[in-house]
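Escalated from tier 1: adenosine-5'-triphosphate holo job.
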Amino acid sequence: MSALFPLTLRDVQVRRKRKRVIGPIDLVLDPSGPTILIGPNGSGKTTLLRVLHGLERVNTGHVGWTRNDPSRHAFVFQSPIVMRRSVAENLAYPLRLLNTPKQEIKQAVDDWLQRTGLTAVRNSPAPRLSGGERQKLAIARALIRKPDVLFLDEPCANLDGYATREIEALLHEAAANGTHLIMATHDMGQARRLAHGLLFMLDGKIHEVGSAADLFAAPSTDELSAFLRGDIVI
Ligand SMILES: Nc1ncnc2c1ncn2[C@@H]1O[C@H](COP(=O)(O)OP(=O)(O)OP(=O)(O)O)[C@@H](O)[C@H]1O
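Tier 2 regenerated the structure:
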């Protein structure tokens, strides 16, 4: 168990232009596997991820990591952000920032190019990659510095089944290597494949939280049952 957890949220609220976006949220998160956020559009998943990563300011309440070290977090967005440099340069960049020795950078870059199947395009400008390749690059660039926590916001939205499967393989491997994944998805198949813990958000609040095995087998609220059936829940 990483020393960053448990993560405790007390009475967390975010308001924008007087509108309550999320909250109040009280939560203690001490994951032993990937935590997946599910919920309808606008229920607050992205905002909660941004709050946990420190990208979003809270209006009230407190977010308490057991050890607060944002440099050990990474975030992957729905639309992958890549630099206008080669694929290999994108991978090397975060390690250069950490003053990693050149030889180690080269080894890590070669390793991640191979793991992501991007070796053949190592010298191509990253913006020219396909959507799936770009997302794999964004995930590899986040994982290359071995973060303790990786937040992902719908990383496979707009990707086909093949690209999704490749990305899930990278995520399974990262989780097995000790990175805590906290990820929002609309894809219930993906949630079932990846989740160890499940957070169901509704109207800015955490409506249900528990082990994925328990909640998928026996949701305790009508709203989660309906959501898992594919009914419209607002
Ligand atoms: N900066 C902002 N200003 C005003 N309202 C905002 C802002 N950011 C988010 N919201 C609103 O907060 C609510 C929660 O949005 P959020 O993007 O967190 O939900 P979500 O569950 O991630 O949605 P989706 O599944 O569609 O991505 C929405 O009603 C959204 O319109």
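The radius of gyration is 18 Å.
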